[in-house]
Amino acid sequence: MTTDTSKTEIEKQDSMSTPSTPTLAPHQDAPTGHKADEGRVGGGLFDPKQLLSSLPDAFRKLDPRVMVKSPVMFVVLVGSVLTTVFSFKDPTDWFGWTISAWLWLTVIFANLAEAVAEGRGKAQADTLRKAKTDTVARRLLADATTEEKVPGTALTIGDLVVCEAGDIIPGDGDVVEGVASVDESAITGESAPVIRESGGDRCAVTGGTKVLSDRIVIKITTKPGETFIDRMINLVEGAARQKTPNEIALNILLASLTVVFLLAVATLPPFANYAHSHLGMVVLVALLVCLIPTTIGALLSAIGIAGMDRLVQRNVLAMSGRAVEAAGDVSTLLLDKTGTITLGNRQAAEFVPVHGTTQAEVADAAQLSSLADETPEGRSVVVLAKEKYGLRERHQGELTHAEWIAFTAQTRMSGVDVDGRKVRKGAAGSVITWVREQGGTVAEDADTVADRISEAGGTPLLVAVHDERGARVLGVIHLKDVVKEGMRERFEELRRMGIKTVMITGDNPLTAKAIAEEAGVDDFLAEATPEDKMALIKREQAGGKLVAMTGDGTNDAPALAQADVGVAMNTGTSAAKEAGNMVDLDSNPTKLIEIVEIGKQLLITRGALTTFSIANDVAKYFAIIPALFAAVYPGLDRLNIMRLSSPDSAILSAVIFNALIIIALVPLSLKGVRYRPMSADKMLRRNLGLYGIGGLIAPFIGIKLIDLLISLIPGIG
Amino acid sequence: MGPVLADVLFVTALIGVLTLVHRPLGDYMAAVFQSTKHLRAERWIYRSVGADPDAEMRWPAYLRGVLFFSAVSVLFLYLLQRVQDKLPLSLGFKPISPDQAFNTAASFVSNTNWQSYSGEVAMSHVTQTMGLAVQNFVSAAVGIAVAVALVRGFARSRTGELGNFWADLVRCVIRILIPLSVVAAVVLIACGAIQNFGDIHHITTLTGQRQAISPGAVASQEAIKDIGTNGGGYFNANSAHPFENPNGFTNWLEIFLLLVIPFSLPRTFGKMVGSVKQGYAIVAAMGIIWFAGVLAVTWLEYAHPGTAAQLAGGAMEGKEQRFGEGNSSLFAVSTTMTSTGSVDAFHDSFSGLSGGVLLLGMMLGEIAPGGTGSGLYGMLIMAIIAVFIAGLMVGRTPEYLGKKIGAREMKLAACYILVTPSLVLIGAALAMALGKGQSSMTNVGAHGFSEVLYAYTSASNNNGSAFAGFGANTEYHNTMLGLCMLLGRFLPMVFVLALAGSLAEQKPIPVTAGTLRTEKPLFTGLLVGAILIITGLTFFPALALGPLAEGLA
Lengths: 717, 553
Fold this sequence. Notes:
Subcellular location (chain A): Cell membrane
Number of domains of chain A: 4
Number of helices of chain A: 26
Number of helices of chain B: 19
Shape of chain A: elongated
Distance between the termini of chain A: 94 Å
Strand order of the largest sheet of chain B: 1-2
Radius of gyration of chain B: 22 Å
Oligomer: heterodimer
GO molecular function (chain A): ATP binding; ATP hydrolysis activity; magnesium ion binding; P-type potassium transmembrane transporter activity
Distance between the termini of chain B: 34 Å
Number of strands of chain A: 22
Membrane topology (chain A): Multi-pass membrane protein
Binding site for ATP (chain A): 373, 377, 407-414, 425
Domain P-type ATPase A (chain A): 137-237
Largest sheet of chain A: 7 strands, mixed
Strand order of the largest sheet of chain A: 10-22-21-20-11-18-19
Number of domains of chain B: 2
Structural class of chain B: mainly alpha
């Protein structure tokens, strides 16, 4: 064990074994209470009761100044007003009144969809507001010892405030002195307290959270009103909601389709007059509303809000809708090895005996010597010995007269002296030195085995013993990074979706390569520095790719800002949180994959409903055109392939279908279409069949059914 | 050999030869537009007009070139018609009236070649050859140049440069249109088309009546009329006239000529964007719509009900006995779907529903396969719309050929698809509301309305064919149709070039498994569906009151 690389490796392993301050387990799964229903990005909950409770908001949104933002629905609103006015001119015309009523319902249903989507955010915002109760800050004066009490809102950037157990932290900032456990459940929903300490990457505290123990001094980093919790409230309420680039583009398409159909309808009277068919305003408006893409026009903003909401439900805050859209486009994922791809710690995988010893001997000695090692690595040795070699776990108390040598970062060894037998296990360098000190020799193949393990990306620990036969190395423990279960399949899925995964690690290239191969990532960046990361992102972006990454440290901030989707961990520094465009409150880097899927699901939902909406028009024509003109050109009745009972009923059925389909699709627009990772080809085929062909056929059935119902009403059929 | 079998062989031979020719021709055109060398003749032209053929143009400069050149062309053609009596070889014809001269100038410069005049009794030799025939070449070349600029927009990255308009225009004429026309003209002459500058022959027919037989450089103009998808006939009867279209073979040849460049340009496109498969997807969409139209019209004409039609084996009224049912239908669909507008049978005489198919062919925006150049850029715009919707359904913001379809691109594409439907519908509606349509009809009822609708559809989409009954030579229609032609031609070009500029500035997005595959049959199917639904449905109400009302009666 003389090569430099293996030495650094071992030192790394050792430093990692050093028990560190326990914080909120950074890689745990989403906290309970935020459980996703079936499917990874299955979607949010939808409760029909929400429709009722959002009704007042839906009416409030009838304000033309609000409506004009959605050109399609604005046209419907104008149409509703027109038909109502014309109905007043002819109050006995039940047809005009009925059409007017359904047109108003169409507008209200559209508003309702948006109101329901927003309503879910509002509930969340209320919870957050409770956390933002007025706080009194204990500001430190210039002498750094005297305190004054000021309201939290009076703090400015750079102020130092003191918080002790029981205090609510008055604003966002960094801990500059002390260490404390903090209850961040107000933001994360996670009740387990977390540790915040000065220096390092866990110094950021959020206003509105509560200090549970100890005393810290915080340097305020944000102005009141712009704190994290304020931004969260704005985000979930949708107050800061702006149309995303793709939404704008889609709105342009919808507006142009609306104009085209407006022309088609507005130019119809001169044509029809020539044929001696005089069309009334009511039927013209009805025709127009049926043709313009009302379904997607009504649901578009609800889809966007729901997409953001689906992230919030997974405890991810997207600072802009743009970021969510970008997530769908991502083609390169940078994933940190530790915690994302592998479990946090290395684990013993194998006991390799040197010449002249047996595996069982090594296992026994390894177990014995690891009992005093409380690090995860040490415990994993005990577990392996038990699981693979059937060695019952012994307890320190069982062995009398045993002298335990606990693992320390200095000695980098653990072991036990019992019955005149000394057993040691630890970093190769330390164990070799120990054996030599004891006057023993190191078997040659110990070196070979250790090298082989290093080359394979593992970390070798030596097991040695000093007994009646002298001091000698018994064998080697193979420690390796354990790839999380199911990661390989996930990367396989991502590959099929056209997303490249790059593993980022501080390990040397050899280790990195071995883990990369085992996990099935496409590429890896070994011995990665923040500069390397940045360069990689820029390289990918120069090739036209969109890059997503997670990060928590201050030195990640530039890369987070450069990435198209930068997810900052909530445990991270404020610099990191500021730089990224999303914050994961659970600080779970694996979630990056879900974020990408949610982004895709949002776009697919939008596309599916647009396709559905446009495809619907075919059937509506077959309902309305014969109804309008069969009287003057009887031949056109042959287009009435649905055999609708009467012209009035045909037009009414189309209008009613058009209104009801909005309500029927509200749950889909809020939950998002079912999404499973697959290639673009398969996905297109599936969605085109479902929403394209389905959109062609569904209205034929729906309109016919409504017509059947209407024709039962006396005086119409 | 029965007529049906003959028709099948006729179409099969046409598709076969087009399939064979489109590859070398498409590759050749790509090479022409990517070449860095200039021919001596071209250098001479550049020097005489003071253009630098190697200067790259951004989209506004390219557009200025297109508009400047076209404006000068309109002015020149207008003046030529107004003073033709004072020029040599006038044949004694009077100057053309201002409104008709404007209409004709707009018509030939916009590659529409709508004719509100009868060539043999109005236009002098000089007007025909120096004016109309020249525009047949250059208006076609302008269309191709704009299409090439859009293709460059897709092919290039991180630049706003779209090539040089003057170089594209001159090369297209010198290296593509003239050589093809020379060959085609020689073949036409060999088959009996006339080519002279003689005087009008006055003859006495067998029944003792006097008839004036007009001479002219017909074969040369006939060749470019079809190759450049122009359609303006030397004679009023157009390709039904035996001097223009002497026999069954020339009829086949003319259909081939008017289809050959539009069906080859997708190959050029594929070559220039570096993936011929992308070109195949586009050409397949064009071919599917065209072939469906051919099948529909041929079937409808053969199956035309009515005693006379059934006795004749089909609806033969208004059709040349020499060509028969199938060939006339094939010609009709090909000419309406290519923005050519030449005719070898009178579309007015087709059955109601066939007339509807011909109308729809134009209403789709002349994209299957469309005019020279305009067909390709029109189809690419529709591809962008289709990609936008379908792209979302694969879970990415839409992209086509590695370029993002964002708000700006969508705005330009949306403006493009608004132009012609607006012109057609508003034009026809105004004509009907003001009573101008009714007064020019020669038929009553739904068929009469079809004539008006057809005229405005044909002009706005730069087709140029007419439902023969419509009396278009009035001051109102000359002016309005002239405006429709100009706006229908040049407004879309503005949006196409702006779009090309915007695409060329983007950096390319690499293809991954998550990318929508636009070279696959699935996308072709989607494209066809999007075209039929989005464009077709716009006109459904109008069609219902014309051809559908007539055909379903």
